[in-house]
Every structure is written in structure tokens, then in C-alpha cells.
Amino acid sequence: MLFAPFIFIYMIIALSILAVLFVSIQLNLISYAFMVLGLPPRLAVLALLASLIGSYINIPLYTVKSGSAPAVATVDIDGMIYNIPYEYRGEGTRVAINVGGAIVPLAIAGYALVRSPEATLPSVLATVIVAAVTHRFAHPVTGLGITVPMFIPPLLAVTVALFLGQAMGVPRAIHVIAYVSGVLGTLIGADLTNLGRISDLGAPVASIGGAGTFDGVFLTGIVAVLLAGL
Questions:
Q1: 3 is a domain residue
Q2: pLDDT tens, 87-134?
Q3: Residue at 158 is within a domain
Q4: Residue of 165, 139, 136, 14 lying closest to 77 (CA atoms)
Q5: Which domain does 57 fall in, by range?
Q6: Tell me: the pLDDT tens digits for 43-82?
Q7: Residue 46 lies in a domain
Q8: Cα separation of 20 and 163, whole Å?
Q9: Which residues of 145-159 are buried (b: 16+ CB within 10 A; e: fewer)?
Q10: How far from 205 is each of 94, 109, 110, 145, CA to CA, in Å?
Q11: In total, how many domains does the chain have?
Q12: pTM of the prediction?
């Protein structure tokens, strides 16, 4: 299933940010940050591109019974406008997983932990904290699915990573802790723990890591790798 997690203008903004990142990489700031995370600079840029392009790709998992979708084309959440994918409307809500907002970040998180195994335990603890707080702020939106304020996961993940990294004696792994806890905490706290509420929303598609949470996961990745360069 192919549809945008938000309207096209936001993709243009995201691509503009990516263009700035390209310039930063040439200045060695982001390059250094990704090298510490374990990804070579060019591979890191490809990962960001894969996240943006993959945000349009949703892999169906299963279907649940749900009510009727609202008679509106878009939903405005905290100033962000999301399209409701009516083209995939059927007899219920299709639960899917988003490539750019779930699969790619999870792959990067796994790679980072393999490269920095000392970050595993603090990352698990940080993920529990981020997931709990994110779940508190996540809320269901009729016709769309579960949403979470985009700046809460990255800021929370960085704050918790700074504390646990110093407290547990792994300050060089703060960037890994921030990225892993931000990604997993958002996906678990916002999406997975709320799957039971999907049937009440009348959404044509409910995508794990898609609309409503993709921006939080994407921002978490950027903030976490920038943290490593500080």
C-alpha cells in the first residue's frame, strides 16, 4: 500500500532539511555523528533517504473490524495535516507497518546496538521510560489512528540518554541510547500498546510507524545523531 503519512508540502520540508544535512555532512559535523553511531556517512544519508521514501510504503499485516470512517479528507493534529487514505478503505481497518517509520529505524537501531553492545542495558531501560511517557501523550484520532506530539519522543529520548549514559558509565554510547530508546519507545508507547484501540477509530489503514508517529521517529533519529557530534 502506497500513501503519504502527511501531505506533500511536509515531504518538501523534510527533503529541504535533508539538503541541509547534505551540506552539514560536507562540513564533517553530521559525518562525525553518524560515524560514532556506526554508520558510514554515505550509508547514513541513504538511511535517511530510505526513511523518507519508505514513509510512503506500508506493508499490510492483518485486518480488524472497525466503524465507519469520518467524512473528511484530512485531519489536523497539532498543526500537522494528515491525509486519510480512503483509497484503501475496505471492510475494516488494515493494520500495516511503515517501512520508513518502523522497519528502517529498527534496522539502524539493531546495527547500532551490535556496534555498541555496552549500550544494550541502558537502552532497554531508556526505552521503557520513553515508551511509558509517549503512551501517556499518545491519543487516538478518528479516521487516522494513533498520534503523538512530534517533539516529545526525541527530546525525551535525548534527556533520558544523557542521564542514563552518565549514571551507568557509558557516556560514549549516549547517541546509541538516545536513538534506540527514541525509536523503540515511540513505536511501543504510541503504536503497539494502542493496537487494541484501532477498531474504534474507523481508520481505513492504521500503520505502525506511519502517520502520526513517523515524524516523531524521524526527528528522534536526527536529534540522536546530532547529539553525538556535541
A1: no
A2: 667 778 888 999 988 998 899 899 999 989 999 999 999 999 999 999
A3: yes
A4: 139
A5: 8-228
A6: 777 777 788 788 888 899 988 887 666 666 666 666 666 6
A7: yes
A8: 29
A9: bbbbbbebbbebbbe
A10: 5, 26, 27, 8
A11: 1
A12: 0.80
